[in-house]
Design goal:
Blueprint lengths: L7 E7 L3 H13 L6 E8 L5 H8 L4 E5 L5 H9 L6 E5 L3 E3 L3 H11 L3 E9 L9 E2 L4 H8 L2 H4 L20 E2 L2 E2 L3 E5 H7 L11 H11 L3 E12 L9 H19 L2 H29 L4 H18 L8
Parallel strand pairs: 1-2, 1-4, 2-3, 6-11
Antiparallel strand pairs: 4-10, 5-11, 6-10, 7-9, 8-11
Helix pairs in contact: 1-2, 5-10, 9-10, 9-11, 10-11
């Protein structure tokens, strides 16, 4: 399928994502890079026949079958330790890789030795642009997201949250963070910066790693000359409460790791206000409509669970 010398190692972590894994692996099989490639899939104890599908349709994949759900960060790390390529592509299962994408990213890193992590232009399934560039979290941009100022003042840099929605993603740009749905990382940078933080079961791993890379002197860059599709959120939509809590825990872990005590207090306050207001608004809206509204009920469940977690942390099921 590819030249004998491995230059690019692709790592995909999947959990009950059979359909999307099929599409992702199919895109790699139909248009493999000109450079040598190896592909790892770490299956996190799926129950949807993902393993059987991969073994039957993609025997060239290096399949790692975990007996438990390791989470995203630990699952990636298991495979990264076995990678032979000079470059490691961390790709979500709900991504479709365009022809030439991996070669273009590898060429870019060849030409820019101080870049440790580069991300492609990513589209939604309808080919609209998906924001994959972020700024490092701070209290102001988190407040703008929680208060919906970023929505009210669309296109504003001042009121934008972490996501750089004001950036049209039309040119190469050094950024703080490349969203982790598709990261293309220089092995040398991984060796220096370290693997993903396994305390981050899901979410936040991209922000944390890019922060550590920046501290170590590596650049993180968005490069529109490579393209992919990301069907965002489809693999987690069936478990809104579980993943909302996991995301909240990851945010708090990041702030405790990279910020002072006052910053942690500040982000917890923003979370409390955000989920408290959402819960009240969903309750009032349901009362006004005099009936069950699925969206309102979902918001209540998610915000209620996040509030309980903030006041009395509880274990998040991992399987």
């Amino acid at each position: 399928m590819c030249p004998s010398t491995i230059d690019i190692s692709v790592v995909i972590v999947g959990w009950n994502a059979k359909h999307y894994l099929d599409l992702c692996l199919g895109s790699l099989e139909k248009a493999p890079p000109k450079r040598g490639m190896e592909v790892f899939v770490v299956d996190n104890a799926s129950s949807d026949d993902s393993v059987e599908m991969i073994e039957a349709k993609y025997p060239w994949v290096k399949l790692i079958k975990s007996k438990e759900n390791l989470g995203f960060s630990k699952g990636n790390n298991v495979a990264i330790r076995q990678c032979q390529g000079r470059y490691v592509a961390l790709v979500n299962p709900d991504v479709i890789v365009f022809p030439g994408c991996l070669d273009a990213l590898a060429d870019f890193l060849d030409e820019n030795p101080r870049v440790g992590n580069v991300g492609p232009r990513v589209f939604n399934p309808d080919m609209s642009m998906q924001s994959t560039c972020r700024r490092f979290p701070n209290l102001w941009n988190n407040f703008c997201s929680a208060s919906r100022l970023e929505t009210i003042f669309k296109g504003s840099r001042l009121f934008a949250g972490e996501h750089m929605f004001y950036f049209p993603h039309d040119r190469t740009l050094a950024v703080d963070v490349i969203v982790g749905c598709f990261s293309f990382i220089r092995r040398e940078a991984l060796d220096q910066v370290g693997l993903l933080d396994e305390e981050l079961f899901m979410y936040g791993d991209d922000v944390d790693w890019c922060r550590r890379a920046r501290n170590a002197g590596w650049e993180v860059v968005f490069y529109p000359g490579a393209k992919a599709i990301h069907d965002r959120g489809k693999t987690t939509v069936a478990y809104p409460v579980r993943f909302a809590i996991a995301q909240q825990r990851s945010v708090l872990h990041y702030w405790k790791k990279h910020h002072a005590v006052l910053g942690v207090i500040g982000i917890r306050t923003i979370m409390l206000l955000h989920h408290g207001l959402r819960y009240v608004m969903a309750t009032v809206s349901a009362w006004a409509q005099a009936g069950l509204n699925v969206q309102n009920e979902a918001r209540k469940q998610v915000s209620g669970a996040c509030l309980r977690e903030l006041f009395a942390p509880r274990a998040v099921q991992k399987a």
